[in-house]
Design a protein that fits this description.
heterodimer, A: alpha/beta, disordered C terminus, B: 2-enoyl-CoA Hydratase, Chain A, domain 1, 11 helices, globular
């Protein structure tokens, strides 16, 4: 671990985006070799930037959902560089609802620079698709665990990251916007990305310190791309540990905890007297 | 066009006298010289249909019957968690805006609309672009939770550029915080009306603003996720002239109706009655 304390923030960003880094299917196929991929949102589309399907993991059937990047140029295009359209969020929620029906836990792997910033996504309602997904995760009566495995960019990442626990791989990032976009927004100059990346606090350790993620999963020496098997094993151990505890939690307690996890996510500010008193979380 | 029964015609066009807002001397829509007082009585809508931008306190005065507005949690203050310096220190930005009398990007409270009790949350675009921040998210979540437990209809006025960069990932997570609370409002069967004004984008559009039981857009308001500047940068696309306008979103199923501000209060009163019987 000490090796990475010497990395600059931008070096972490580059590791998170490393073209040789394991992607969602690299993990899913290692964890559940019998994985069956399912397709389509049942509303008129499919989205290859989001893979979903069922497989057996540690003795139970699990619904896997993952934002998927491509390994070579044609596949990158087919996966739209991991940027989902509205169909992706609708497909994810279709599969999440199916998971609830069969009492399968859901595993979400986050790896996206953000939702697709294009006219087609706008025309088909990307904002409402993300909004609906985020709301619906809070109603889903089965355990949901999420892991940021590369880039966790903006609302496009959050739409798949409303879990009972959220963990991050050591060299992944999670941010309100990718550094280029944030620089463009606050500075109208996306060449200031390195400075803005340092300002944003987006590394796994920053997020752990802020209480946004439960745990940081260490990567092999040199980064996840140097050893897919070891990285997959480490992440598997962590996620299964959470899943074991969550599957024993009564549903009502699970949903209340998920609500409070996000409702009081900024609890370090709640501790400040100026911020005013906490109020009850309202009726279930 | 919605036909309202005569009872709703008694709901005044504006709730309280509207404060002054910045106005040009002539209407950009029709060129007529503007009469401030007359315009204020018409909710800052010109006879030609041009809607002048109302912000924060003007929207509160517009919605609330005279002397019925009770603001809540106005004491919650923003914090510079990330010690943000680029390109300007966030703490200075906040101090400056507060010295201008603005109190964060969202204000919330209770009021009556045509005599009906409602909870309201009003975005103010003048405060860091109406960005969803920790304070904004907290005020929204508390108001939504209170509306759910009191079973009082909730009215949102959205005007926002999205999540606030200067508060980092915790600003992003406000989307989940407020949507969790909207989910509880829906689960409690309490009606939620969302008024989308110009502009409503990013994390605000992708969270509570588009989750109303009824989404009402102002004529000409721009509503979307990614702004046109970024779309053009990212995709080099030519965007149609009506891209992301209220009518564009109506045609694409994202809003229920486009409502002139002069008809909004009688309609809201009617909707509150329809959804609470």
């Amino acid at each position: 671990m000490s090796k990475d304390d010497t990395l600059t923030v931008w070096q972490v960003v580059e590791l998170a985006r490393h073209p040789g880094r394991p992607y969602a299917l690299d993990y899913i196929r290692r964890w559940a070799p019998d994985f069956v991929e399912l397709h389509g949102d049942r509303l008129g589309g499919d989205d290859n930037a989001l893979v979903g399907g069922v497989g057996s993991w540690a003795g139970r059937t699990v619904m896997f959902l993952g934002q998927q990047k491509g390994r070579n140029f044609p596949e990158r295009v087919r996966r739209n560089f991991g940027m989902m359209h509205p169909e992706g969020y609708r497909k994810a929620m279709r599969l999440a609802r199916q998971a609830a029906k069969f009492r399968f836990p859901v595993v979400c792997l986050i790896d996206t620079p953000g939702a697709y910033p294009g006219a087609a996504a706008e025309e088909r309602g990307i904002a409402a698709a993300i909004a609906q997904a985020i709301m619906e995760w809070f109603w889903l009566p089965v355990p949901v665990v999420a892991a940021v495995i590369g880039e966790g960019g903006s609302g496009g990442a959050l739409g798949m990251a409303v879990g009972d626990c959220v963990v991050m791989l050591e060299n992944s990032i999670y941010s309100v916007a990718m550094p280029e976009a944030a620089a463009s927004i606050v500075w109208r100059d996306n060449s200031r990305k390195v400075e803005v990346a340092e300002q944003l606090q987006i590394t796994s350790r920053d997020l752990l310190a802020m209480g946004v993620v439960e745990e940081v999963v260490e990567e092999p020496e040199g980064g996840a791309h140097t050893d897919f098997d070891a990285t997959a094993k480490a992440l598997e151990r962590t996620l299964l540990r959470y899943l074991e505890a969550l599957t024993r939690t009564p549903t009502e307690e699970l949903l209340q905890h998920r609500y409070e996890r996000f409702r009081y996510i900024d609890s370090l500010i709640h501790a400040d007297a100026d911020f005013g008193p906490k109020v009850g979380s309202g009726p279930a | 066009m919605i036909t309202l029964t005569p009872a709703y015609k008694d709901v005044p066009l504006v709730g309280s006298p509207l404060p002054e807002i910045p106005l040009p001397t002539n209407c950009p829509g029709c060129g007529v010289a503007l009469d401030r007082e007359e315009l204020a009585d018409r909710a800052y809508v010109c006879d030609c249909g041009h809607h002048f931008e109302m912000r924060g306190e003007a929207w509160i005065a517009f919605l609330a019957d005279l002397d019925t507005w009770t603001e809540r949690w106005s004491d919650i203050r923003p914090h510079d968690l990330l010690n943000w310096k680029l390109p300007k220190p966030y703490s200075l930005v906040i101090d400056q805006l507060r010295s201008e009398g603005l109190n964060e990007a969202v204000r919330t409270g209770t009021c009556r609309l045509g005599g009906r009790p409602v909870w309201t949350g009003v975005f103010d675009f003048r405060f860091v672009g109406g960005t969803l921040s920790i304070v904004a998210g907290e005020r929204l979540a508390r108001g939504l939770e209170a509306a759910a437990s009191e079973r009082v209809p909730y009215i949102l006025v959205a005007a926002s550029g999205g999540a606030r960069m200067q508060e980092g990932v915790l600003a992003l997570l406000q989307m989940a915080k407020v949507n969790a609370a909207v989910g509880r409002l829906h689960a409690a069967g309490v009606p939620y009306f969302s008024i989308l004004t110009d502009p409503t984008f990013g994390g605000t559009a992708a969270s509570l603003a588009l989750l109303g039981d009824v989404n009402l857009a102002e004529p000409g308001a721009k509503i979307g996720f990614t702004g046109p500047r970024v779309i053009k940068q990212a995709t080099y696309a030519d965007l149609p002239a009506d891209f992301q306008t209220a009518d564009f979103q109506l045609a694409r199923g994202q809003v229920d109706m486009v409502v002139p501000r002069t008809e909004l209060r009688p309609l809201l009163a009617h909707l509150v009655d329809l959804y609470t019987t």
